[in-house]
Design a protein that fits this description.
By secondary structure, this protein is of the alpha/beta class. 27% of the residues lie in helices and 14% in strands. It folds into two domains: 164 residues, 3-Layer(aba) Sandwich (Rossmann fold), CATH 3.40.50; 176 residues, 3-Layer(aba) Sandwich (Rossmann fold), CATH 3.40.50.720. The chain is built from eleven helices and 14 strands. It holds the Pfam family 2-Hacid_dh.
Length: 358
């Protein structure tokens, strides 16, 4: 397999070059898996792929699906025929746009995140929402640890030092040690648990915080988020995002993390107050940050140009060659269940009490 990342541009993923099987010789979107479909009627019941960046999904769906693409011309009759949508759940989806599809019954997120969908608006109209569950959490945890190690051991800085010719041997490059770190994890779902397990393998103590207690966890839960930040020098954000926790990593939390602290965010950009983060990085009130997600994506590169001690990656933590087929397979299972009148595999639950916070 070639070195380096796989860049997916629009609806045309790059092909793989391994030739150990017939499937591996095909373009990525043609070799997700061999799928056996059930029998159900699809007449005048169409599935709309909304976001062009996941357009490759169209080629992976079984032939029994009647597919429309939102970036192609769509007639009023076509809108009326749409009963399910496939979306990238982290991309904002306007309710006014959804309202143009009177027979819409399912919004199927290819991704594990669904913060781009107003699930309350959907629930009030009887529209179901699904997402990917426990498909890419191991990859995201790997990425989080990679960011932590890269920043702590100065890997990016070291690379630049060698390439620029500034490494002259006159002085030894000294970095932090992993043994100096204690890790606070925000959110202990599938990603948080996977991160915690990796931290233990590196001998790092783990503390966590989330809004709900979890008695089955072997890790101590902090009394609140500020305490979590104050008692650790690494804060890894791994929680889900919704309207209730926007900017929960505020200036106050960053101040608690302090001038020796590192922030790692592999969850959602909306969870972190980026303005407060940048101000504290520039004033050295925070040691560093490693971010895979941003408030606006793609983020404006000028925003980070003069910000010291950061490592930035393009929301790629959960996207690997191994994960994409699993995401599509789970997506298809949800579409088939809905169109076949069966229970959804991974529905997004909306708690009745949550409506009170709108």
């Amino acid at each position: 397999m070639p070195d380096g990342p796989l860049l997916i541009v629009g609806a045309t993923p790059a092909p793989q070059t391994r030739s150990d099987s017939h499937l591996n010789r095909l373009p990525l979107q043609r070799r997700f898996f061999r799928h056996s479909t059930g029998v159900y009627k699809m007449t005048a019941k169409k599935v709309l792929i909304v976001h062009e960046q996941i357009g490759f999904v169209a080629d992976a769906l079984p032939a029994t699906f009647d597919i429309l693409k939102a970036w192609e011309p769509l007639t009023p009759a076509g809108r009326d025929s749409v009963i399910a949508m496939v979306v990238s759940g982290d991309v904002p989806l306007q309710n006014s746009y959804l309202a143009e599809f009177p027979n819409l019954g399912l919004i199927a997120c290819l991704t594990s995140g669904y913060d781009g969908v107003d699930i309350f608006w959907a629930a009030e109209r009887g529209i179901k929402v699904t997402r990917a569950v426990e498909v890419n959490h191991e990859e995201v945890a790997d990425h989080a640890m990679g960011l932590l190690i890269a920043w702590t051991r100065g890997l990016v800085t070291g690379d630049k030092l060698v390439r620029s010719g500034e490494w002259n041997g006159a002085a030894k490059v000294v970095t932090r040690s992993l043994s100096e770190l204690s890790v606070g994890i925000v959110g202990m779902g599938a990603i948080g648990k996977a991160v915690a397990g990796r931290c233990l393998s590196f001998g790092l103590p783990v503390l966590w915080w989330g809004p709900r207690k979890k008695d089955d966890l072997p890790y101590r839960r902090a009394s609140d988020l500020e305490t979590l930040a104050r008692e650790n020098n690494v804060l890894i954000v791994a929680s889900s995002a919704d309207r209730s926790n926007r900017h929960m990593i505020s200036g106050k939390i960053l101040d608690a993390l302090g001038p020796d602290g590192l922030l790692v965010n592999v969850a959602r950009g909306s969870l972190v107050d980026e303005s407060a983060l940048i101000e504290r990085l520039q004033s050295r009130k925070l040691a560093g940050a490693t971010l895979d997600v941003f408030e606006q994506e793609p983020t404006d590169p000028a925003k980070w140009r003069d910000v010291p001690n950061v490592i930035l990656t393009p929301h790629s933590a959960g996207a690997t060659r191994a994960v994409l087929p699993k995401l599509v397979k789970q997506l298809i299972s949800n579409l088939e269940a809905y169109l076949g009148g069966r229970d959804l595999l991974t529905p997004v639950a909306v708690r009745p009490s949550a409506y009170d916070g709108r």
